[in-house]
């Protein structure tokens, strides 16, 4: 099979982790006879530096044409503490999400037995934790009207949702919960005791639920959900939520596995699908070859699955689990005995190419 991929390295550690994914995709291509072609494009602080625009038109045009987008990370500290900056790297990602209509962000919370000692939770709480967050990605407070008065004494961000915006992601989440490998449970996370938008989410989900009679639905306020993720994470299967709540609870959930650096995501919509690790640009580590490439590599595995290359995706996941089980981990996971970004990429690649001796398999 031939597949074209728009590659957006982005900022901070984005380039070095994405480079490992390209290595892995090329190794998979060799092993299975696929041809992946890459179109490198700019977005984020690097794009502002080079073009003045966090999302140049060429990047959108490429993304609309290719079969998938692989994205690294976005953000630079020089913008974080400058509230009056007119142009910000993050605007690039938000505009790309809306240009490609990437309305659903899927974030699987994966845990590895080999890393259970790193979780902030006790091992018995972690056993069997396996849930997926469906975060709405192109609506809500992120995209509502923003205002600040001239005196800079009052500001507002509007949170609004329409029924169709909720329905389309809710259907995806219900269908996902119905997959054979899932436990047929969907939890809507909202703040329906306070917010009108949340009450609309609840109403829409209640209206849709009868079309999925096999799925058990429950409803949870976001403050309670934030607590339940820590006290009883096993109870979750598919979690559906709006944009901002999803942003927050997915970072919270990611550390259950031991490191934010491990988790992948896909963003799906009406056209090209985007794949990215959920971590940020980690500027302190940029260029040092110490960042964890696994969030990006598992995002590439999600991309392979999207291409219907299931055996290929499974092999990549097996290779990742093998490196973790062998203790070939990066600094975020083990501060003393650790390996560099590119060494971990090479080990995963070697496993895929079967250069790993059978006795350690
Ligand atoms: C994420 C990030 C983004 C978000 C930022 C970089 C705009 O935190 O993908 O979770 O808030 O959506
Ligand atoms: Mn986030």
In short:
With 361 residues, this protein is an alpha/beta fold.
Question: How would you portray this structure in words?
Answer:
There is one protein chain. The protein is of the alpha/beta class. The protein has two domains: 1-106 and 264-361, 3-Layer(aba) Sandwich (Isopropylmalate Dehydrogenase), CATH 3.40.718; 120-257, Isopropylmalate Dehydrogenase. Helices cover 40% and strands 18% of the residues. The chain has 13 helices and twelve strands. The protein has helices at residues 14-32, 45-51, 57-65, 77-80, 89-99, 123-126, 163-177, 196-208, 222-231, 243-254, 294-306, 310-325, 341-352; strands spanning 2-10, 35-41, 68-73, 104-109, 131-136, 146-148, 155-157, 185-190, 216-221, 238-241, 264-268, 273-277. The strands form two sheets. It has a ten-stranded mixed sheet, sandwiched between helices. Strands 6-7 form a two-stranded antiparallel ribbon. Strand 1 (2-10), helix 1 and strand 2 form a beta-alpha-beta unit. Helix 1 (14-32) crosses helix 11 and helix 1 (14-32) packs parallel to helix 13. It is globular. The model has no long low-confidence stretch (mean pLDDT 95). Bound molecules: 3-isopropylmalic acid (IPM) and manganese (II) ion. Manganese (II) ion (MN) binds at residues 247, 251. It holds the Pfam family Iso_dh.
């Amino acid at each position: 099979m031939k597949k074209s991929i728009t590659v957006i390295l982005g900022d901070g550690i984005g380039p070095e982790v994405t480079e490992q994914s390209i290595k892995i995709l090329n190794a998979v291509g060799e092993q299975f006879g696929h041809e992946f072609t890459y179109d490198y494009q700019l977005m984020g602080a690097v794009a502002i530096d080079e073009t003045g625009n966090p999302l140049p038109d060429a990047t959108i045009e490429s993304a609309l044409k290719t079969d998938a987008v692989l994205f690294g990370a976005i953000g630079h500290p020089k913008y974080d503490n400058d509230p009056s900056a007119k142009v910000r790297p993050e605007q690039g990602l938000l505009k790309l999400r809306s240009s490609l209509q990437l309305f659903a962000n899927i974030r699987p919370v994966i845990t590895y037995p080999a890393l259970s000692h790193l979780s902030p939770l006790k091992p018995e709480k972690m056993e069997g934790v396996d849930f997926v967050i469906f975060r709405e990605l192109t609506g809500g407070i992120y995209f509502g009207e923003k205002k600040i008065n001239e005196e800079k004494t009052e500001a507002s961000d509007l949170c609004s949702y329409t029924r169709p915006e909720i329905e389309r992601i809710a259907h995806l989440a219900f269908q996902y919960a119905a997959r054979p490998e899932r436990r047929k449970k969907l939890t809507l996370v909202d703040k329906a005791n306070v917010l009108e938008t949340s009450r609309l989410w609840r109403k829409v989900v209640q209206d849709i639920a009868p079309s999925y009679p096999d799925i058990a639905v429950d409803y949870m306020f976001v403050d309670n959900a934030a607590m339940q993720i820590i006290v009883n994470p096993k109870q979750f299967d598919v979690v559906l939520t709006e944009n901002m709540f999803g942003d927050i609870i997915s970072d919270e959930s990611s550390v259950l596995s031991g490191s934010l650096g491990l988790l992948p995501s896909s963003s799906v919509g009406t056209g090209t699908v985007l794949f990215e690790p959920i971590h940020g640009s980690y500027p302190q580590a940029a260029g040092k070859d110490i960042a964890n490439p696994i969030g990006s590599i598992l995002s590439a595995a999600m991309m392979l699955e999207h291409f219907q290359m299931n055996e290929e995706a499974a092999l990549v996941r097996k290779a990742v689990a093998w490196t973790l089980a062998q203790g070939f981990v990066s600094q975020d996971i083990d501060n003393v005995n650790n390996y560099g970004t590119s060494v971990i990429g090479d080990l995963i690649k070697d496993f895929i190419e079967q250069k790993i001796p059978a006795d350690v398999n």
